[in-house]
Design brief:
Length: 91
């Protein structure tokens, strides 16, 4: 019988500007953003890669919002650095 490899999760953190963005959201929207974070911990590579000055970052859609984050592979950390309406943060 084969043993399954344990899932290697990433730790999800939010920087100061992401917390500020999150606090401005309405209660139901806050919960939708929080609900997506466990999925980022399991597989942070599911988000769309950003280009240009944001190369190395990714975004995840949480309609109508975007969660913008970067992956620190060595530290096994997903750092969320922006949360906002898709039109206001421009990603």
């Amino acid at each position: 019988m084969k043993k399954e490899k344990p899932a290697v999760n990433f730790r999800v953190t939010m920087n100061r500007s992401a917390w500020k963005d999150w606090r401005k959201l309405e209660s139901a929207d806050k919960q939708r953003v929080l609900d997506i974070l466990p999925f980022l911990a399991l597989n942070p590579f599911i988000g769309k890669k950003l280009q240009g000055e944001f190369t190395g970052s990714r975004r995840m859609r949480v309609w109508p919002f975007r969660v913008v984050y970067r992956i620190l592979k060595k530290e096994r950390v997903v750092e969320v650095w922006r949360v906002g309406h898709r039109g206001s943060i421009g990603y």
